[in-house]
Amino acid sequence: MMFVKNRIKKDFIMPLKSNRKVALTLADKKKGKYQRVSSVDIKANAVMEIYIKGVEFPLILAKQVFKNEDSSSGILYLVSNDLSLDYLSITTIYQKRWKVEEYHKSLKQNASLEKSPTKTVITQSNHFFASLFAFVKLEMLKNASCINHYALKTKIYIIALQKAFRELQNLKLLYQIS
What H or E segment, with its residue span, contains residue 99? Predict the structure, then answer.
């Protein structure tokens, strides 16, 4: 946080672990009176100014409560050094950033960007392009089928295994190998 604000001179929004120690006022910070962020009573759809141990400037805190697909609930604590932001701005900006995280994760894991065995610039460029192309194809399939990238990759893998097994069986019959 200190690096981003002081060295890079940028504003940030980032998640905060629930056990992070915060002070609710500058006076509390000076007295060393900190509490876990999970114990802070913050209203829904609101932000509050806080001070974090080891950070010299005030931050705003937003508590985002959301429902998971399995009907359980989750809590995400977000902080920003831009004190002019409101709850909606913080959560909207963070959600946009999360989409970028999903893109990078899928590009690396599902389109095999990180599994490049290449050594030269040309082959690395080709692998990068092929991975981007694979991601775009997965995204198109996701939109058409309403199935996420991981499930699509699994389906493609199973179909490929089934076809390989059928081909192996055909070769076995052709050469009459038992």
Answer: helix 87-109
| Nearest Cα residue to 78 out of 9, 5, 8, 22 | 22
Identify whether the C-beta of residue 81 lies closer than 8 Å to the C-beta of residue 55.
no
The predicted-structure confidence for 137-146, as pLDDT tens digits, reads as follows 999 999 999 9
**Cα dihedral: 137, 142, 145, 148 (round 10):** 130
State residue 178's pLDDT score.
Answer: 61
Point out which residues pair with 82 in neighbouring strands.
none
* Other CB atoms within 10 Å distance of the CB of residue 50: 25
CA 168 to CA 27: how far, in whole Å? 75
Backbone angles phi, psi at 125, to 5 degrees: -65, -40
Amino acid at 122: I
Q: Closest Cα to residue 97, out of 3, 10, 14?
A: 14
CA 130 to chain centre: 23
Q: Is the pTM of this model over 0.70?
A: no
Residue 73, token pair as written in the block: 């609930």
Longest dimension (CA), the chain: 85
Locate 2 and state its tokens. 């200190």
